[in-house]
Every structure is written in C-alpha cells, then in structure tokens.
Amino acid sequence: MKRRDFLIAGGLTFAAATLSPSLFASQQQPLKILALVFDDYETLDLHGPIEMLGHMQNVQIKLIGASPTVRSYQGPRVVTDYQLDDVVDCDLLLVPGGLGTRTLINDEALLTWLRRQASVSKKVFSVCTGSALLAKAGLLDGVSATTNKMAFSWVTSLSQQALWQPSARWVDDGRFLTSSGVSAGTDAALFYVRQRRGEAEARRIERLTEYQWNSDAANDPYAVEPMTP
Amino acid sequence: MKRRDFLIAGGLTFAAATLSPSLFASQQQPLKILALVFDDYETLDLHGPIEMLGHMQNVQIKLIGASPTVRSYQGPRVVTDYQLDDVVDCDLLLVPGGLGTRTLINDEALLTWLRRQASVSKKVFSVCTGSALLAKAGLLDGVSATTNKMAFSWVTSLSQQALWQPSARWVDDGRFLTSSGVSAGTDAALFYVRQRRGEAEARRIERLTEYQWNSDAANDPYAVEPMTP
Questions:
Q1: Given A44, A69, A208, which is nearest B47 (Cβ)?
Q2: In the A/B pair of chains, how many CB contacts fall below 8 A?
Q3: What angle in degrees, to the nearest 10, is found between the helix axes of A43-53 and A184-197?
Q4: Does the domain at residues B29-208 carry the CATH identifier 3.40.50.880?
Q5: What is the ipTM of this complex?
Q6: Could you report the per-residue pLDDT of A35-69, keeping only the tens digit for each?
Q7: Which of A22, A47, B77, B203 has its CA 20 to 30 A from that of A183?
C-alpha cells in the first residue's frame, strides 16, 4: 500500500507553495478530511457532512473508493480522488452507510484497509450503517457508539464488544464519532465543527445553510429501547 | 440539440423491457428526475433533494452538466449522465444553487438551454440560488417564488417580474417549486414527495432517513423583511 500526503496530491496547495513559499509557510495546514465511498452508499450520509465540514475555513475534502467512480443508492455517481490501495494521513475519516454495507462487511480486503486507514486518521466519523464496517473491523471494541436506529439490531449484532447506545443522535468517544441514521450525520458534522473550530463557527455554518441544527446529542427523536442482556 | 428519453438511456430499464416485456408493460413509467450540475454548485442543494426523492419507488435520477464531471463548492466531484446539448423529457428538473450561479447568470448558452429544458419538464424545482438562473432566464416572470434568504437582495434584483416571497421555506406555484437556502431544498423535496405520492410516503421517507422535516412552507426560520416598493 502507498501512503500519500494531501499536500502532494492537492494541486492548488502545491502551486501556492511554489508561487509563494513565505505566505504558504505562515499558513496553517489544511484540515484534511477523507471520505470512503462505495456502490450503494447512502447519499445524505456522505453529502450532509461534506456540506457542513466543507464550509470551514482551510479544509480539504477527498473521496476514496475501490473504483474511479462510485454510484450512490439513489443513482448519481461521484469521482474518487484515491483508490483503496492508498492509505492517507488525515484529520477525519468519514465512513458513510447505506445498503452497500450489507455486502461490504464480508469484504476482508476492505476491512483490512479500514483498520490501516483508521490507524493514520486522527478521528473516525461514521454515519448511519457506516458503523457496521467499523464494528466488523473490530474498531469499536470497547468504544461507546451508536448507529442507524432503523438497523440497530443488525449493526449491533456485528460487535458484542462495542458499547452501543440506543438513544443518542451521535456519540463522541474521542477517536470515534458515530452518528445515528442518515440525517443525524449532518448534525454530528456540525458537532465536529464546534469541537474543532468553536460554537460561533458551527452557528455561522448553520445560518449560512439555513439549517435547523439538532445540536444536542441527547435529543434523539428515533431512539430505540435499551437492549436487555 | 438532441432530445432523448430516459427509457432509452436507462440501460437497466431497457434490459428489463427486453427480458420481460409483459412485466414491463404492466409497470408504471418511472418518475424521471433530471438535475443540473455545474462547478461550484452547493453540495446539499443537490444531494439533500436527491436523498429524499431517490427513496420514492420507481424513480430515476440523472445529472446533466457542461462537462463529464463537475466539482461542488465543497470539493468532491459528480459524474454527469447528459451533456448540456441534450434536452431531456422529465417530470422534475432540479436546479441547485451555489457560488457557481454568480457567473452562470451571464452564460447565454446556459440560459437558452434552461428555457428549452424547462419547456419539456413537467415541473421545475430550484433550491437556494438556483432561482437566480430561473429568474435571469425569465422563467419566473409572474411566478410566486422564493430563494436563499442570505442572498435575497441579489437574487431578487435579477427579476422585477417574479413575485418574490420574503417569508417562505418554499413556494409551490404549480409548474415552479422554489425553495429557500440550502437545507430548505430537502424540506421542499419531501413536499414534492407528498404532492406526488401522498403524506404516508413522505413520512415513511422522513423516518427512514431519521430526518426532522420542517413540513410547513410557512415556517421559515430565516425569513427576511418584506421589501418596500
């Protein structure tokens, strides 16, 4: 596997460094966000967070997948920036869910990549059934986490070691941020903005996008009953 | 310009017709949704509606743009299914907004295509500053409409003939459905689901996506002051 750096791959940033090294040197490194995509990923799981994260200043968002283009469950296709033989240093690894996860949990190459990629990602953020992939890879062992409430029994069956939360819009457990289903990822993304850049920045992006942020992780309108042991 | 039909372009549907004509003949035509994309389109303007519309039964969603791939304002790229020399019969033409509209309003070829495409679209649905393109093309003359409330004075300056609404999450004026900024498009898309397929279907999709639908067009948390004449 190759290990690459966003600064080398990012043409614009590289050009900026070439043209104006002093300016470049004085700037902060961009926040590097990498999102896994796969056929039958759920559209909003990916693009809701990208909307909110992409409005932060000095951020780069790249997609990684098994093929040059990848089709969402809803039909439209996205272009990948990296292939799955790459492992990319990043600040945030975004793992969306969707129907495609039902087969991907049995893809050993994908799970091996996911473990390696997670190890070079400062934080891992799953939306919806993206947590199924993390659970199957063993990454959520001992981690407090949540998932899609419509698929709660399936996802939670994939790891007895994860500390599954039946009532949470999202759960932040340090290195792992896991959200509930689909739309919850957008709310959790704004939580990440708040964590990284402060409340004012999160509220600026909420207004800019005319969004109505469910900003309280404990406010879960789709909570399920706690599991009996 | 070429005029194409989704059934010919849609390989899967065509294959189904070939393999099983009697089954195919007994099925309803799919609901055909076409979405315009352009560089610096706003991610959620496009993908929020695609999420909700794409969960209806028997629907096809295709993208049309000036080049084979198109980059969002947030960075990631989508693949177009049609090029802008095509005019495609459809049930719904989705026109997102975003920073790209600031230059596109001066693109005469785009505006000409938009007028032709609108004429073969049963309904036209703009999100955010997508309404700037409709307004500049003259399509909103005499039409009750709304737009992004953060860019309200700019968009409304593009048409004195449109009947601009300063307080509305979205406005449905028959052939034209126009929403407020970014996130409002997702709410308006569920309104379209309700209009086409009924309340129960809209609520099913809301639950499936763990969404909290602002289902009342009059509930506009970002309303602006009415303009003085």
A1: A44
A2: 127
A3: 20
A4: yes
A5: 0.88
A6: 999 999 999 999 999 999 999 999 999 999 999 99
A7: B77
